[in-house]
Here is the input.
Amino acid sequence: EAYSHGGDADVRANPDPSTCLGVFGLSLYTTERDLREVFSRYGPLAGVNVVYDQRTGRSRGFAFVYFERLEDSKEAMERANGMELDGRRIRVDYSITKRPHTPTPGIYMGRPTHNGGGGGGGGSSRRGRDSYYDRGYDRYDRYDEYDYRYSRRRSPSPYYSRYRSRSRSRSYSPRRY
DNA sequence: GTTGAGCGTT
Here is the structure.
């Protein structure tokens, strides 16, 4: 009964244990590699994802760390929370969200702007928050529920041509001395 | 090295 009604505030204060940890309060200069080094102490990782600002390309100061095993993520959560990293005291918690938001679904999700007339241009009927489509496709975050590690490509994606596997060249920046 | 708090659409 303690937190069963699923209110947002409760979920935030008390996220369920998960293999996905949110790491907050990072230095802008902490990289995914750094986080890997730290968090892989507690067990094998499935992924690390620093969130970058889309405009500036810089870190937004938080990240998500995916563990393979729940027991490891639990330990990491407890041991790494409050740890100092790159001069910052970081906060580690089970992530509320599991995955980045689903990109544009490809179909229009907004409310029909049907105003019966021709002038549909202005459209400034959006008061207050002007977040993405009024966050209209948050409903697609149900994808978050499923663990991508278990996903298999069941049908060949048109975006992956088997003839693409030639340019394997990674762009590792060579060290300059 | 532009803080703070911040749960993600490269």
Observations:
- Residues 12, 15, 22, 24-25, 27-29, 49, 51-54, 57, 60-64, 93, 95-104, 132 of chain A lie near DNA strand B (CB under 10 Å from a C1').
- Confidence is low (pLDDT under 50) at residues 1-5, 116-177 of chain A.
